[in-house]
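Example 103, ligand iron/sulfur cluster.
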Amino acid sequence: MTSRRQFIQIVPFASAALLAGRTAFAADLPMVDEKDAQAAALGYVADAAKADKAKYKNFAAGQNCATCQLFTGQAGAASGPCKLFAGKQVTAKGWCSAWAKKA
Ligand code: SF4
């Protein structure tokens, strides 16, 4: 049986572990590297301003990961996961040729 004193000693550690697990979720995912084969094939850039506009004629100002339907990061976050890059995250201001307007 857990005494009141033991309970009081356990609670702070349990709470900290729960919080750590929660904040580690998206923030711990590695960033997509522009040089990764898949990223390069899609023309991914961490900054949409650096998109290859000559190669990707479909690029238009205002397109970036934050406005893309495949971006699953939090609104206002600097980075987040993308459905095309499982287990990694992209920058909110990034872009690739698979950009699709968020519904
Ligand atoms: Fe960004 Fe969308 Fe391309 Fe993913 S699919 S990298 S969210 S533009």
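Summary: Residues 44, 65, 68, 70-71, 82, 84, 90, 94-96, 98-99 surround iron/sulfur cluster (CB under 6 Å).
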